[in-house]
Amino acid sequence: MRDQMSNGSFITEFLLLAFADTRELQLLHFWLFLGIYLAALLGNGLIITTVACDHHLHTPMYFFLLNLSLLDLGCISTTLPKSMANSLWDTRAISYGGCAAQLFIFFFLMSAEYFLLTVMAYDRYVAICKPLHYGTLLGSRACVHMAAAAWGSGFLNALLHTANTFSLPLCQGNALDQFFCEVPQILKLSCSDTYLREVGLIVVSAFLFLGCFVFIVLSYVQIFRAVLRIPSEQGRYKAFSTCLPHLVVVFLFLSTAMVAYLKPPSISSPLLNLMVSFLYSVVPPALNPLIYSMRNQELKDALSKLVTGRLSAAIGCPPSSAAASQSMMS
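The chain above was modelled as a monomer; its predicted structure follows.
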């Protein structure tokens, strides 16, 4: 059932915040977002394809990286296409059902990504601090169970927040100070004290996320202590190179999300809300493939092999010739 406004009408759609008012800037926004979206699709798609096709990458670390790329693809595909369509067609509207679906999917994927980053911290901890037990603690079944737990926890978290948010009566209009639907902006439209239920859920989620954050920090404290005890400089460099991308991704994810949700209301403004939401909803999914591929020679070699093989197949080059060409380039 739709929420009823104070004047007796029903909310059938919400109005999203536009990035620009003039037609020229709207089109510029469309092309800019299209470029970012295609770059994110290409980067995450290449990681997914490379990990799936190269059996040398069928390890726990790359299995979790594949899941991370899937989540990033889903996150950016939930927000950018609708924003681009609105700019292209000069509209701000999103249907009630579309808003609920967008909020649920985005919250689901973002929550699952955070839980997955926590699992990936555990993977790096076991690999460096307990290498002899790595195969036992992170077997294929254990990896699948941990990834499923991350996805399932994100789904449950999003389901609770979405159901509770859209059960509140809304009477403060239908305009959102955001370019996509998110919980804090919809709560601003509520005219009932029942919003305290959602605040309670947010507090519970905050404690859960804080627990994950503490786990990540403690894991990396142990990791750095173990790495600094490695006698060889090459060994320390290799250990750091496998951890640094994950640490950068965690920092990027947490710093942008904390700015978005913990900034004081006194400094809130439509322009600042747009910039902050762009930072945490668009930047991490677009940059994560670049972060993981820059310092990962194994992933770059597999990607190069995949691209070379596809190009050779496209031009009819025999596999042996492609392999020879690849070895010469190496």
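The chain has a mean pLDDT of 82.
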